[in-house]
Amino acid sequence: MSTPRIVLVHGGFVDGSGWQGVYDLLKQDGYQVAVVQNPTVSLDGDLAATRQVIDAQEGPVVLVGHSYGGVVITEAGTHESVAALVYIAAFAPDKGESVNSLIADPPPGAPVPPILPPVDGFLFLDREKFHGSFAGDLPAGQAAFMADSQVPWGVDALGGAVSEPAWRHKPSWYLVATDDRMIPPPAQRAMAERAGSAVTETPGSHAVYVSNPAAVAGVIAQAAAR
């Protein structure tokens, strides 16, 4: 069996450049890696962008999603080339679920992401609270750069519902970030359990893919080895 290609899918408020640390480690280990640049305007648009990248790969694909990218890979993962799914502190919705439905009823005491009211159909995180909520384990300067370079996240992307969850048919892995203040760790564990994912836990903020690329690359390598 040929070595699987790795396709990395980013989430909301950020772009694909945050994967560089993970990309570098995987490349060092001999993997071919592609990074999707989601427009994050609508789920349909992000699915199209992801499928375009999957179509360009030769051989089986390990599809990796962070945060909202988990919604994208859950739907795009039904592609015949996708052999495995990897969720990195990500949403793993079931049929009919969206980001909106998954965050609609947070557990008591859970941190509330500082998402500002939509403007012209797009969302941003409060820049003053970005460090503590999204990237608490990154240096202040790096978190400030991420806050000031946010990508607008379309409300249509949050409302996009999954029609056929790929994790029902394909093996999946899940990395829980135990210090996440965007998607509560108990919610991550519950989604991973429902999906039947092989679970790894590591200390880390929601930006664990940036702060701890070795842990993330390690889980991806587990999926690729399968």
UniProtKB/TrEMBL annotation:
Domain spans labelled AB hydrolase-1: 6-218
Gene3D superfamilies: alpha/beta hydrolase (3.40.50.1820)
An example molecular function term from Gene Ontology annotations: catalytic activity
Domain of life: Bacteria
Identification of the protein by name: Pimeloyl-ACP methyl ester carboxylesterase
Organism listed in the record: Streptosporangium album
